[in-house]
Design a protein that fits this description.
- This protein has five domains: about 100 residues, no CATH class; about 110 residues, Sandwich (Immunoglobulin-like), CATH 2.60.40; about 80 residues, Immunoglobulins (Immunoglobulin-like), CATH 2.60.40.10; about 80 residues, Immunoglobulin-like (Sandwich), CATH 2.60.40.10; about 90 residues, Sandwich (Immunoglobulin-like).
- The two termini are about 30 Å apart.
- By secondary structure, it is mainly beta.
- The protein is globular.
- A hairpin with a 3-residue loop joins strand 1 and strand 2.
- The strands form eight sheets. Strands 27, 30, 31, 32, 33, 35, 36, 39, 40, 41 and 42 form an eleven-stranded antiparallel sheet that branches. Strands 6, 10, 13, 14, 15 and 16 form a six-stranded mixed sheet that branches. Strands 18, 19, 22, 23, 24 and 25 form a six-stranded antiparallel sheet that branches.
- Belongs to the 5'-AMP-activated protein kinase beta subunit family.
- It comes from Mucilaginibacter hurinus.
């Protein structure tokens, strides 16, 4: 995430009370108090988010930046130190002091900036959760438990998020002696969520990760893990981290925890091929337990993980071909990169791909061709390519229209591009399976140039053309 010069974090908190140079407002939990750092050069939106998390409601950002701190004083904060532009406020911790880490812990302004729609985070390469008190965890049964501590007097508490289409009618949490719980089944990935207490939406104050909600607040972010890095031995090391292609080889970002005779760290990794190495006290080490290794262009030996779905590309015939390759949007259309092997009378190549939608073609002795066994197409830059969805979560179906020459599907998922997706004919239906974004999706069919609602779907809503759009809701767990 690129930040302007005035919001680059350069934070260091000394527990003796000295505020180091910082160019972004932050809220930190020390051992027995909360410490609020405010940089008077912060932007108003940044300051608003920090003050909201600090429990300062209805504050005037402009007045705070001008030196009027009455809203902070009213919320129980005391000005403890000032160093040039940086102010340090403190507030005693009155609950859960036994769960606050001994070292300073950033619990706010870890705001993600993905390219997803508000409330539905975009895919990310990796993720590590950051809690001041763990309020979301995985149970042995495979379900994820969300916990809202306290709120004993609340009449009704709900859990809402990207995993249940931000419902306000479901997601009821169960009251316990220490708070409220809700158990749901999640696949590995990134999720946004909030609690609804007596009709009021709040973020998880114990969760350091957030994403802007598209309004004036933010949603809490949780990663459902799917991978654990483990390094056996190295028991005399003082620090072990893991880095790789997923985090741009940032050696200091993901530390491993020392166990009896090994080190480990769990996180979420996006599907695909991942290169990685361990860093042991500054010394790079390939994973000795992983036999799959590859050298990069600098001569470094990297361990390799392959996560994802297996998509098998096959081309029948072409007995006399000397070389057959496949290229597509999954490898930036590089020819002579992914080769098919001859098995009897078929050319075959199984590839591990990230779930998504892809255009592709075969290259037979230098000649590019579409897949003759696939009647679904994707038009990109005026070029017609074969289309495949890896791990699709919806299949569009239009029954009948036997005499139609072409049937296309378009909608909010492709910015209403009317040429992009051409459906294939199977039996008495036109079909196309796709990987769609989560949440509400609007769409229409285009039959030989004529736009139409989906006759097999009763859900629709009006549009600006008074012709309506069909609606589907895509569940994040599909």
């Amino acid at each position: 995430m690129k930040l302007t010069r005035h919001i680059i974090i350069a934070m260091l908190l000394l527990l003796c009370g000295i505020v180091a140079y910082a160019q972004q407002s932050n809220l930190i939990a020390a051992k027995d108090e909360l410490v609020l750092l405010i940089d008077l050069r912060s932007s108003k939106p940044n300051l608003f988010n920090v003050l909201t998390r600090a429990g300062v409601q209805g504050s005037n950002n402009t007045q705070v930046l001008k030196g009027n701190f009455s809203s902070l004083y009213n919320a129980g904060w005391k000005l403890k130190a000032k160093q040039k532009y940086v102010l340090q406020f403190t507030k005693p911790i009155t609950v859960n002091t036994d769960r606050v880490p001994a070292k300073p812990y950033l619990i706010t302004m870890s705001v993600k900036q993905t390219e997803g729609r508000p409330g539905y985070p975009a895919n990310v390469a990796y993720g590590v959760n950051k809690f001041s008190r763990v309020t979301v965890w995985e149970l042995p049964t495979g379900v994820t438990r969300f916990f809202l501590p306290g709120n004993a007097k609340a009449r009704k508490v709900q859990l809402s998020g990207s995993f249940n289409s931000w419902t306000t009618s479901k997601g009821m949490m169960t009251k316990t002696d220490s708070g409220w719980i809700s158990d749901i089944k999640l696949r590995p990935g990134i999720y946004a969520y909030k609690f609804i207490i007596n009709g009021h939406w709040i973020h998880d104050t114990n969760n350091a990760l957030s994403e802007h909600d598209g309004h004036s607040g933010f949603n809490s972010i949780y990663y459902r893990y799917n991978y654990t890095f483990k390094l056996q031995g190295e028991t005399s090391a003082s620090r072990v981290t893991v880095a790789g292609s997923f985090n741009k080889w940032n050696a200091g970002e993901i530390p491993l925890t020392k166990k009896s005779d090994y080190w480990q760290a769990s996180l979420y990794l996006h599907d695909g091929m991942v290169l990685y190495r361990f860093n042991v006290d500054g010394r790079w080490v390939a994973d000795p337990a992983n036999p799959t290794k590859i050298k990069d262009d600098k001569g470094n030996t990297n361990s390799v993980i392959k996560l994802g779905e297996i998509a098998t590309f096959q081309l029948n015939g072409y007995d006399d071909a000397r070389k057959v390759c496949v290229a597509g949007s999954f490898n930036n259309w590089k020819p002579d990169n992914l080769y098919l092997k001859r098995v009897n009378d078929t050319w075959v190549s199984p590839l591990i791909l990230t779930p998504g939608n892809y255009g592709y073609k075969f290259i037979v002795d230098g000649k590019w061709i579409t897949d003759p066994a696939n009647t679904c197409y994707q038009v990109e830059g005026g070029e017609t390519n074969s289309f495949v969805a890896v791990k699709p979560n919806h299949t569009f179906r239009l029954r009948g229209y036997n005499n139609a020459r072409t049937v296309r599907v378009t909608g909010t998922f492709n910015n209403w591009n009317e040429d992009q997706y051409i459906m294939g004919r199977k039996g008495d239906e036109w079909v196309m399976s796709m990987k769609l974004p989560e949440g509400k999706v609007l769409y229409k069919y285009i039959v030989d140039g004529n736009w139409m609602l989906d006759p097999g779907n009763k859900l629709w809503e009006p549009n600006e053309h008074n012709t309506g759009n069909s609606i589907i809701w895509v569940d994040g767990n599909n």
